[in-house]
Amino acid sequence: ELGVGNHRSRVDIPDWVRGYPAYLREAGYYCTNHTKNDFNFTNAQAFAKDCWDDNSRKAHWRNRPEGKPFFSVFNFVDSHQSRTSVNSYARFQKNIQSQLAPKEITSPNDVVLPPFYHDSPRMRQAFARVYDCVTLVDKQIGRLLQQLEEDGLTEETIVFFFPDHGQGIPRYKTFPFGLGFRVPLIVRVPERYRHLVSYAPGTTCDDLVSFVDLGPTVLNLGGIDIPEYMSGLPILGPRKRERKLFYGSLNDIGATENHSRCVSDGRYMYIRNYMPHLPYSQTQMYCDSAPIMRFIREDHQAGLLTGPAAEFMAPMRPAEALYDLKSDPWEIHNLADDPKHQQTLTRMRRRNQETILAIRDLHFLHAWEIETRGRGQPAGDIREDRDLFPLERILAVAELNGRGPAVLERQLAALKDIEPMCRYWALIGLQAQ
């Protein structure tokens, strides 16, 4: 919605958009962020200053004024993509495995590979390091929770734990499949605050949650009004609201073009690839820096890949995909062409289009258009201008992509449209014919 969806976007966001810690600070909380600053817009320094009392490697609740309530974020980077798959194996052994006891190190022989990976000793070894990185972070989180205990704060503090995306390996992070979006979310609520939540201790649930819900949820638990411009829902607290639909997007990753959208109702995952002429396996800086992707490419060249592993290396991606998450959590059986699932496909397709229009998804503008079309306005400010951003017309052309020869004449006609983005999506669609 703010135009920052491309990885490494460099656009302005409106001054009226603030991080939710800024509202916590105004309510009297001491707010800190430890280690990671990975903002995707130009005015990040001022934005961060508004959010945090301390934004550094020394940030900690222990530095707060005595008796002041706190909100502290800690980022654990040893399960990041650089550690799980990109750094050399020798560096991984030195920096990760050296901190684990022998019994904590995952044996490649014990690894169960996803069905879209070719089973080989080197792939098992590469995948085993993912588990080792997770084990180390698990220990680090344990030490942080111990600090809460030492400070007598365990029964005073609500704790959220979650990663920021799926694993940094092929077909997870930076791919449109649900595996890139599905992450664990654990919330510990001490006795004194349990009146704020409707779940009993130890409860697990399959409620739909989006990252945009985290800010409103924290504000709701703190009794702070949620700004109207926040699109997320409070999923815990006295004004809890239930999410009916998850919406995810994949745009450009570095210099690698992508344009995919997905929606899920919890049972089905629908993926719409608006650039179906591009393969899932196109070269990508982050994935191709990792041995796992190199192994996949080498095995593909050697003719060793079959089934879902071979489909991942296909020269094009399907325009639409539909997966039944109940029976197919790995998302390897595309039901989009299955006659028995056409009603579900139509329903999920419609919900994707409705969501795009409802939030006025700015990334149906090319990145260049986002930066220049507003004539100096922050990207978020052009979203509601129907003349400046005629999304309905643009989406109508983009939806033709991947539909085959039956829409060829409409795409050719769109090449003459006065709206540049209609012409752009028509060209993309002609590439996919």
Detailed description of the structure:
The chain is α/β, with parallel strands linked by helices and 433 residues long. The strands form three sheets. It has a four-stranded antiparallel beta sheet, with helices on one face. The chain has a three-stranded parallel beta sheet with strand order 2-1-3, with helices on one face. Strand 7 and strand 8 form a beta hairpin. Helix 12 packs antiparallel against helix 13. It is globular and about 70 Å long.
Strand order of the largest sheet: 6-7-8-9
The biggest beta sheet, please?
4 strands, antiparallel
Share in β-strands: 5-15%
Global Rg? 23 Å
Measured as a percent range, the helix fraction is 25-40%
Q: Determine the N-to-C terminus distance.
A: 30 Å
Mean pLDDT figure: 93
List segments where confidence is low: pLDDT < 50 over at least 5 consecutive residues.
none
Name the helix and strand elements from N-terminus to C-terminus, one letter apiece. HEHEEHHHEEHEEEHHEHHHHH
Q: Write down how many β-strands occur, each being a DSSP E stretch of 2 or more residues.
A: 9
Count of runs of 4 or more consecutive helical residues: 13
Structural class: alpha/beta
Shape: globular
Which descriptors would you attach to this protein?
single chain, alpha/beta, three-stranded parallel β-sheet, globular, 9 strands, 433 residues, four-stranded antiparallel β-sheet
Secondary structure: elements and pairs:
Blueprint: H1 20-26, E1 30-34, H2 44-51, E2 54-56, E3 70-74, H3 81-86, H4 89-95, H5 121-150, E4 159-161, E5 186-188, H6 214-221, E6 246-250, E7 260-264, E8 268-273, H7 291-301, H8 307-312, E9 320-324, H9 342-359, H10 367-372, H11 391-398, H12 408-414, H13 420-431
Parallel strand pairs: 1-2, 1-3
Antiparallel strand pairs: 4-5, 6-7, 7-8, 8-9
